[in-house]
């Protein structure tokens, strides 16, 4: 039985050793997990196992795409190599005399193969990396009769060029793109995958923590720390029960989170989009900052269970309004524009 630290050591060693055994261009990846239904002996591993499981299943999801992409890249590479090979062989054949001095000429050609490479490279704009190894090629050519080589068939090269230009582009377009597959349904479904994306039970991955904390609870989770946030709110000098962007910002930047994140927090918290934060919205902002500071991710949209109870009706109204009205929402204080106009200047 190994403890957490030993497990890490075994994990690292396994990854390193496999890298030496497996002859693949990819770096070997080891996934670790627990495959029994007994209590975990080392509960510290729980998160690690969950993360690993997610990684494994995500990688499996991308397998069909990556495999197709790799095949396509291999095909392109082979086509290019075949083209270069045709150029080299036909160049050797072209320079051979038809009757006398064949052996001498062949020796010359093999000796000067480097120059032939250069010439083909210049003439057909081929990258040097596409040429076969010079020394190996010279060794192999010794055993061949150059007069039996075929002359260049331009028609065949045209077909290859057309394939590279048109067919490959078509095939490339058929491979699903990263951004699309990320939002659409997973490509690999069923079996073990059903358990991994558990969004129903409270034991699903990252359920009940970070942004999901408070989900399904009758009380608004932000209320729990509310007394702290309300005290802060009052010291920031609310006007008619609301904080201006500048006032809220002065407190929010104390989190030391970058403006890009605080801007996101602002957008999520200013639920009624009036460019100010009331005490509910401010408490929500501080709650979101707490979530982020604790290492969790923020969503792009505020989940229903985090919407302040006072805003449930308002939010629905907002969605009913035509687009133009929403566009009138004030600039968040973390946008570049706001920094120039609303930032309180420090006085000397
Ligand atoms: Ca507001």
TrEMBL record:
This protein's GO CC annotations: cytoplasm; plasma membrane
MF GO annotations: calcium ion binding
Signal peptide segment: none
UniProt KW Nucleotide-binding keyword: no
Pfam family, one: DUF5600
Start and end residues of each EF-hand domain: 257-292
InterPro entries listed in its UniProt record: DUF5600, EF-hand-dom_pair, EF_Hand_1_Ca_BS, EF_hand_dom, EH_dom
Presence of the UniProt keyword Transcription in the record: no
Bias (Polar residues): 338-348
Domain of life: Eukaryota
Limits of the EH domain: 225-313
Region (Disordered): 321-348
Any one GO biological process: endosomal transport
Key words of the record: Calcium
Protein's name according to its UniProt entry: Uncharacterized protein
Native species: Timema bartmani
């Amino acid at each position: 039985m190994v403890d957490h630290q030993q497990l890490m050591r075994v994990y690292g060693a396994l990854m390193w050793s496999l890298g030496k055994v497996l002859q693949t261009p990819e770096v070997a990846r080891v996934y670790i997990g627990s495959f029994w239904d007994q209590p975990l002996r080392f509960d510290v591993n729980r998160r690690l196992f969950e993360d690993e499981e997610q990684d494994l299943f995500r990688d499996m999801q991308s397998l069909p795409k990556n495999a197709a992409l790799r095949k396509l890249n291999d095909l392109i590479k082979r086509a290019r190599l075949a083209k270069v090979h045709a150029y080299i062989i036909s160049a050797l054949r072209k320079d051979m005399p038809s009757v006398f001095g064949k052996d001498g000429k062949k020796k010359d050609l093999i000796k000067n193969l480097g120059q032939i490479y250069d010439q083909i490279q210049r003439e057909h704009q081929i990258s040097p990396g596409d040429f076969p190894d010079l020394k190996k090629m010279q060794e192999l050519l010794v055993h061949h009769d150059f007069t039996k080589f075929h002359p260049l068939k331009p028609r065949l090269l045209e077909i290859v060029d057309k394939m590279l230009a048109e067919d490959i582009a078509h095939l490339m377009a058929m491979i699903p793109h990263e951004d699309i597959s990320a939002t659409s349904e997973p490509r690999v479904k069923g079996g073990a995958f059903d358990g991994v994306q558990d969004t129903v039970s409270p034991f699903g991955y990252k359920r009940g923590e970070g942004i999901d904390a408070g989900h399904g609870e009758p009380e608004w989770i932000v209320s729990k720390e509310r007394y702290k946030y309300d005290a802060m709110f009052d010291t920031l000098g609310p006007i008619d029960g609301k904080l201006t962007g500048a006032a809220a910002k002065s407190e929010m930047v104390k989190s030391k989170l970058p403006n890009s994140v605080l801007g996101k927090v602002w957008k999520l918290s200013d639920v009624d989009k009036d460019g100010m934060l009331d005490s509910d919205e401010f408490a929500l902002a501080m709650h979101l900052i707490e979530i982020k500071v604790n290492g969790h991710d923020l969503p792009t949209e505020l989940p229903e269970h985090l919407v302040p109870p006072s805003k449930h009706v308002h939010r629905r109204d907002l969605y009913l309004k035509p687009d133009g009205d929403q566009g009138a929402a004030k600039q968040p204080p973390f946008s570049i524009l706001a920094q120039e106009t609303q930032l309180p200047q420090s006085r000397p």
